[in-house]
Structures are given as structure tokens and as C-alpha cells.
Amino acid sequence: MNMDYAKLDRDNEAFHLKQMEEAMKGGAAERSFYTAAFAAHQAAVSDGLMPSRDEDGELTYSPQQGLKAACHSREDAAATLNIQLPVLRLLHQVRILAGSCLVVLLYIAYRVS
């Protein structure tokens, strides 16, 4: 079976980029996550960390790619924390708002009774 792997790879890349663009249209948390995921993907492509096809059409990684990926793992952990920080700040603000609403409702209940 002779497949055009270059076309398959291009179609696959286009499909995933379209999915990411659609997902970025969501809320603030989704935008933060998918923007970071898109940046990470672009960085992996530019650093040469994506697999390449061998003569049998299988996706393979070279030993150098494995070493580079291990070196970049700390950056990935830092990026994950950078994504979580805005979400945690948003949750903290929602908690403060919920507490304020609870205080107002308790005051109203006290005044009504």
C-alpha cells in the first residue's frame, strides 16, 4: 500500500489547528489553555521535536529529539503553572463574590425575619 504520507501529515496538522482555533473561541480559561497549547506546539515544531517518517512510513523520534524533549520538560511544567495561575485567580474572585452575596443574603434574611 503506497500512501502519500506528506499529504496525510498536512491534513492532520490542518485538522488539529482548526480544532484548536475553534476551541479558542470559548471562555477565558479555554482561551488561555489553547493559546498556550498552540504556542507549545509551534515551539515544538520550530525546535524540531516533532516525529519524522522513516522509510516504512512510521513516525519515529531520533535520540537527539528525546534528549531535547527531556530538557524542555521543565519549561512545559512552568507553562502549565502559568496556565493555572489565571484560572486560580478567577476562582478566587468568584469565591470572594460568592462570600459577599452570602453576607448580603444573610442580612436580608435577618431584616425580613
Characterization of this structure:
- This protein is elongated.
- The N and C termini lie far apart (about 80 Å).
- The protein has one domain.
- α1 packs antiparallel against α2 and α2 (about 30-45) packs antiparallel against α3 (about 65-110).
- The protein has helices at about 5-25, 30-45, 65-110; strands at about 50-55, 60.
- About 80% of the residues lie in helices and about 5% in strands.
- A two-stranded antiparallel ribbon has the order 1-2.
- The protein is built from three helices and two strands; from the N terminus they run ααββα.
- β1 and β2 (about 60) form a beta hairpin.
- The protein is mainly alpha-helical and about 110 residues long.
Main attributes of the structure:
mainly alpha, 78% helix, two-stranded antiparallel sheet
β-sheet strand percentage: under 5%
The topology string of helices and strands comes to: HHEEH
For the largest sheet, list the strands in their spatial order: 1-2
| Helix amount | over 70%
How many separate domains? 1
| Biggest sheet record | 2 strands, antiparallel
Q: What is the compact description of this entry?
A:
The chain is mainly α. It is built from 3 helices and 2 strands, in the order ααββα.
Blueprint of the fold:
Elements: H1 5-23, H2 28-46, E1 52-53, E2 59-60, H3 63-112
Antiparallel strand pairs: 1-2
Helix pairs in contact: 1-2, 2-3
